[in-house]
Amino acid sequence: MGAPVSESERGRWGTGDAAEPPASTSPGERLTELALLVSRRFSNVAPILPHGTEILHLIRSGKGPHYVVWARHRCAYLWYCGPDHGAQIGTTANQAAETIGRTLGLPPA
Fold first, then answer.
1. The model's pTM
2. Which of 65, 84, 85, 96 could be a cystine partner for 90, CB 3.0 to 4.6 Å?
3. DSSP per-residue codes, 11-78
């Protein structure tokens, strides 16, 4: 037998259950990944990551914006606004996207 296969390789090469992709290293990469997931999964929201910032803006027509950041020290996505400022919404982009959709009541795309 060969060397053990990591979870990400197992998912990537189709030799087992799909796994979470390898973790991005920078907050910008993490937020870009989350923005793509949110835009693919939900309608009525525009995830915008302004160039040079590390704050994901979630813009909805007729409603106030919400903001999300990646906190390296907590290895998690956090709300960056309102009464839930600083609350963790997920450690993976998938978890964060699910929380965003549920919290903001976003319809599927």
1. 0.76
2. 96
3. HHTTSSS--PPPPPSSHHHHHHHHHHHHHHHBSS-EEE--TT---EEEEETTEEEEEEEEEGGGTEEE
